[in-house]
User: Fold this.
Amino acid sequence: MLEELSKYENLGTPKFFCELFTQLKNAKQRWKKDNVMSYFYNRIIDEQTIFDGCLPIAEAIGAVSIDKDGLITLNTSLEASLVNEKYLSGKLLGMILQSFNKDEVFNEIFYSGSVSHDPVYKLIQIENSAFRFRYACFRKLLVDFELLYPHPDVNIRKLIVNPKFKKLFDSQVILEIKRRRIGIGELEKSLEQKQIYGAEAEVYVLAFEQKRLATHSGFENIERISEYDVGAGYDIVSFDKLESDELDRFIEVKSFSGTPSFHWSRNEIDVARFKKGQYFIYLVDRDKMNEVDYIPTIIQNPYERVLADDNEWNKVVDSYFIVKNV
Assistant:
């Protein structure tokens, strides 16, 4: 669907659609494409004079329907939204994400490698380059609908997901990313079970941190970022103390059964080395996590306490990266 829409120059703005849908609603006779082209001919809306992709995308997301005779019908569920451009914009944005979240091109743009968490601004971000030049019109659409906006740091070529639409983004985009991540290549059951164990442990630790910091003024900012940023090197961002005024505890969650043990990736080790005392590993015993008073094993600065300490932990190399000598 997005591949077909990529050939158009402009996919529309909230102001354009508000005016178009108002005209469709109030017209004495149903319009055709020629009526739309005639009405907007030589018009300038949001600094745009070409509206070639607006009707095609409206039809693609179900905002309008066009019958075999070319007659256009407005989706009646949108009529109540026409009283307010912002309200209509939010409604259409939901329809856009819901219509495209399983589209092949959409999945090439929004995937676990392009979506990440900005630890400084505490926001979800996406690589600007993920859209590529071919899909610049779709990027502009999402910017015009205020789902995305440029990163506050002009030196960082990424787009920020508007916090106002975080719940919508989580439900329509992040959830789909998680589904694909589990389903790609039809992962073996054992691997899928590990992901389930890991997710359960992360949910447990998130609740544990929220309880530990229940009186903190930023209580609601404690976040499980592993849902959308698999490359951060940690799973949860939290506050180290009640006095902390910024998220300064970075938690990697590990799940185990029996003797405490865990796998630690190269990326996680690098992040732990960089963050030092702000980095924590929470070891969650799956056999005890449902006990009322259970407290996970918490390791602060594991780069020093685990890798450098040969007395408490045994380290076993279970894989090698092999490169042929040239």
Notes: DSSP finds eleven helices and eleven strands in the chain. Residues 184-188 have pLDDT under 50 and may be disordered. The chain has three domains: 2-100, 104-183, 189-307. The radius of gyration is 25 Å.
